[in-house]
């Protein structure tokens, strides 16, 4: 989305691109460190490689230039890795179910999204945690649908009221598709579950092959079990997704001090190697297939061994992961916003704030797990999602930085003000820039103390609860045609109840 160019100055400056902004200004790794970690990752692939390689994948890899160690591990010569990087897809198009709501992933353009596969939700009224359900999944993603600062939604919770894996995969994809017309992401328990979901998407879009032309859903696949061991079932899912044209987000999520080295540099080197190993395999299956690398360096609290999502180390490690992939020109996903707090309190705010801000400033193309999560991504909350959407508006504005456009520094306006009214409040320039240069919170409060007290002294949680209630009274999303939904319900075991259309 581009703004119109103002003609008040003499120089011809580029139009401002307002959203999504391009990150990459924050560089936690200087040039020497960047090269050192990158070279270490190449060396890991060349000397140590990956284990647990399924036989069919082994044959494919060896036929395409990989090598086998005596212990069965498969290694990748540096020349092979560099060739794959050079030829890999650099821009991944993720259309929405409504195509124009889609995103282009790559080049450091920052997109905010959900994710995390939480198993609990926080009930806003009782302040108690309970198991997440299919209804919770739908309602969370419905909040995403109207959140202006959230660009896509990878399923944030697991529907624990469904036990059968095939039924769960189908219903997860259905509920996500029905809730939002933005790009969605899902996961699969086993390869056989991919085909029925793609068939369902074809029906939704109007016929066989329609999804391949408009792949509004990506598959999130943890292709590796750190350290450096392939996940056989996940590799099978990867092959099915490639065959059926579902874009991939392939995940390496080692935990520093547990499943990757305790040093951040070592964790980054191993994680980059694991990410690149997945990219190599995808491109061996189909050269140039749309694939985003989800390089998620998780952090351990070394006092207990538990994961800490909200630490300063998590913030800098994920920003560095974004920088490494940006340096290689590859589409990236990192994790941020994974607060360890259990409620949307001060701890939640500061942990989410600095982790998401650093990831965005680092140039992450997609930031997963970033909104709506609590308790180290074990729980989700609609109210937290609303609050985080507000926060991300400010973070995305910070990524834009100070923009220079024609008329940004206008001496004529300054002259008129200092010799006239003495303030800029009523000038045409100020009125023009109110909604272009500035972002305003919808949930955050900027009243004076007295005005806030007189208006009810509502907290940010109070306002978030009210916003969620407002969303739940809105007409249900109507992008999924009624006849397509009926056909899907007739063919697949859809457990999500029918909702009357207004």
Overall helicity: 40-55%
The CATH superfamily of one domain appears as: Trimethylamine methyltransferase-like
pLDDT < 50 runs, ≥5 residues: 1-18
**3D shape:** globular
Distance between the termini: 31 Å
- Return the structural class: alpha/beta
Strand proportion: 5-15%
What multimeric state do the chains show?
A: single chain
CATH topology-level name of one domain: TIM Barrel
Radius of gyration: 24 Å
Q: Give the neighbour order of strands across the main sheet.
A: 5-19-18-15-13-10-9-8
Descriptive account of the structure:
By secondary structure, this protein is of the alpha/beta class. The protein has 17 helices and 21 strands. It has helices spanning 31-48, 55-63, 78-87, 134-145, 165-179, 194-205, 210-213, 232-244, 264-285, 312-328, 346-361, 382-400, 411-418, 428-433, 449-454, 460-472, 482-491, and strands at 67-68, 74-75, 92-94, 103-105, 111-112, 120-122, 129-131, 153-154, 184-186, 217-221, 224-225, 229-230, 248-252, 255-256, 291-295, 298-301, 306-307, 332-335, 366-368, 373-374, 379-380. The strands form six sheets. Strands 5-19-18-15-13-10-9-8 form an eight-stranded parallel beta sheet. A four-stranded mixed beta sheet has the order 7-6-21-20. A hairpin with an 8-residue loop joins strand 3 and strand 4 (103-105). Helix 9 (264-285) crosses helix 10 (312-328) and helix 11 runs parallel beside helix 12. The protein is globular, with a radius of gyration of 24 Å. Mean pLDDT is 95; it is low at 1-18. One of its GO terms (biological process) is methylation. GO terms for molecular function: methyltransferase activity. Pfam families: MTTB. Keywords: Methyltransferase, Transferase.
């Amino acid at each position: 989305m581009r703004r119109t160019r103002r003609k008040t100055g003499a120089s011809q400056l580029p139009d401002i691109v307002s959203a999504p902004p391009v990150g990459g200004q924050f560089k936690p790794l200087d040039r020497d460190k960047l090269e050192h970690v990158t070279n270490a990752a190449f060396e890991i692939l060349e000397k140590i490689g990956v284990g647990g390689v399924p036989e069919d994948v082994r044959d494919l890899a060896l036929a395409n230039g990989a090598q086998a160690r005596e212990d069965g591990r498969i290694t990748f010569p540096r020349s092979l890795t560099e060739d794959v990087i050079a030829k890999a897809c650099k821009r991944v198009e993720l259309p929405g179910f409504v195509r124009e709501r889609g995103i282009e992933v790559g080049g450091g353009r920052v997109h905010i999204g959900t994710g995390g596969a939480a198993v609990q939700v926080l009930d806003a009224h009782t302040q108690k945690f309970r198991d997440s359900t299919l209804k919770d999944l739908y309602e969370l993603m419905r909040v995403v649908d109207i959140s202006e600062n959230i660009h896509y939604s990878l399923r944030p919770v697991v529907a624990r009221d469904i036990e059968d894996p095939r039924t769960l995969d189908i219903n997860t994809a259905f509920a996500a598709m029905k809730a939002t017309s933005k790009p969605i992401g899902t996961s699969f328990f086993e390869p056989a579950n991919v085909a029925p979901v793609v068939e369902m998407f074809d029906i939704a879009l109007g016929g066989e092959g329609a999804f391949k032309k408009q792949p509004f859903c990506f598959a999130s696949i943890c292709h590796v079990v750190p350290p450096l061991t392939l996940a056989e079932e996940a590799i099978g899912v990867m092959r099915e997704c490639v065959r059926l044209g579902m874009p991939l987000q392939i995940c390496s999520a080692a935990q520093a001090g547990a499943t990757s080295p305790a040093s951040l540099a070592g964790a980054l080197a191993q994680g980059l190697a694991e990410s690149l190993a997945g990219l190599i395999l995808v491109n061996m299956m189909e050269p140039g297939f749309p694939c985003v690398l989800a390089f998620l360096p998780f952090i351990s609290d070394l006092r207990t061994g538990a994961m800490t999502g909200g630490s300063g180390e998590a913030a800098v490690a994920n920003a560095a992961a974004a920088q490494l992939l940006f340096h290689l020109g590859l589409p990236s996903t990192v994790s941020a916003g994974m607060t360890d707090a259990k409620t949307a309190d001060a701890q939640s705010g500061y942990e989410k704030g600095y982790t998401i801000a650093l990831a965005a400033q680092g140039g992450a193309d997609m930031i997963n797990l970033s909104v709506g999560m609590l308790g180290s991504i074990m729980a989700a909350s609609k109210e937290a999602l609303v609050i985080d959407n507000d926060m991300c508006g400010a973070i995305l504005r910070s990524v834009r930085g100070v923009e220079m456009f024609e008329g940004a520094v206008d001496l004529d306006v300054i002259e008129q003000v200092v010799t006239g009214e003495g303030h800029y409040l009523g000038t045409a320039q100020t009125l023009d820039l109110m909604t272009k240069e500035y972002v305003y919170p919808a949930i955050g409060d900027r009243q004076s103390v007295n005005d806030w007290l007189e208006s009810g002294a509502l907290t940010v949680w109070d306002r978030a609860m009210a916003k969620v209630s407002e969303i739940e009274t809105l007409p249900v999303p109507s992008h999924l045609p009624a006849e397509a939904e009926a056909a899907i319900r007739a063919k697949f075991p859809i457990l999500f109840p029918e909702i009357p259309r207004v």
